[in-house]
């Protein structure tokens, strides 16, 4: 065996070792990307899920509110419907702030607007500053049923409703 063939075998072994180190670094890099990507995807999914839950709760609130016979019942039933929708979708209803429609303006063809807000927690992403908490807000409007018998609120003015124009 010659001296040149022995050095070629040594060079082949050195390349194999360098490839192993590069392969290990690549695996670590991919693992870090997966962990970071999972955290970002989890935060985005939490936001989308909360937005959908608030929207569903607002729809349930207004559906019940607009079909009620009087202002107090409308407010009470609307609140119950929204809270039940949030519970059914797995959202802690105590963390949601509800801004109710004006009960005194309740009446046929009146506009009802409800607002729901939820503060989302911080999301920790590796090697990135922690995302600050954010607030999701959903606002929905609907007309009170104009063809239903009901007791009007004291400030309801039929001439100022969309049906009276």
In words, what does this structure look like?
- With 165 residues, the chain is an alpha+beta fold.
- It has one domain (3-160).
- The protein is 50% helix and 15% strand.
- The protein contains two helices and three strands.
- The protein has helices at residues 3-66, 71-88, and strands at residues 96-99, 111-120, 134-143.
- Strands 1-2-3 form a three-stranded antiparallel sheet, covered by helices on one side.
- Helix 1 packs antiparallel against helix 2 (71-88).
- 19% of the residues are buried.
- The model has no long low-confidence stretch (mean pLDDT 82).
Task: Explain the layout of strands and helices.
Blueprint: H1 3-66, H2 71-88, E1 96-99, E2 111-120, E3 134-143
Antiparallel strand pairs: 1-2, 2-3
- Give the terminus-to-terminus CA distance: 105 Å
Quick check: average pLDDT?
A: 82
| Spatial strand order of the main sheet | 1-2-3
Uncertain parts? none
Q: Figure out the total of helices.
A: 2
What structural category characterises the helix and strand content? Answer: alpha+beta
Strand content: 5-15%
Q: Give the beta-strand count.
A: 3
The total tally of domains equals 1
Work out the radius of gyration.
30 Å
Write the element-wise H/E pattern from the N-terminal end onward.
Answer: HHEEE
Report on the biggest sheet.
Answer: 3 strands, antiparallel
Q: What is the 3D form?
A: rod-shaped
Helix coverage percent: 40-55%
């Amino acid at each position: 065996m010659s001296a040149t063939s022995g050095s070629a075998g040594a060079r082949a072994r050195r390349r194999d070792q360098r490839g192993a180190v590069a392969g290990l670094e690549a695996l670590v890099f991919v693992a870090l990307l997966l962990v970071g990507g999972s955290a970002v995807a989890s935060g985005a999914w939490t936001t989308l899920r909360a937005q959908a839950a608030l929207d569903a709760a607002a729809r349930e609130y207004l559906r019940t509110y607009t079909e009620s016979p009087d202002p107090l019942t409308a407010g009470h039933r609307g609140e119950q419907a929204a809270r039940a929708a949030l519970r059914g979708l797995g959202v802690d209803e105590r963390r949601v702030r509800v801004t109710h429609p004006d009960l005194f303006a309740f009446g046929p063809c009146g506009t009802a607007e409800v607002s729901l807000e939820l503060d989302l927690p911080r999301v920790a992403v590796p090697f990135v500053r922690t995302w600050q908490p954010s607030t999701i807000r959903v606002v929905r409007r609907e007309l009170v049923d104009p063809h239903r018998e009901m007791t009007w609120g004291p400030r309801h003015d039929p001439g100022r409703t969309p049906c009276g124009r």
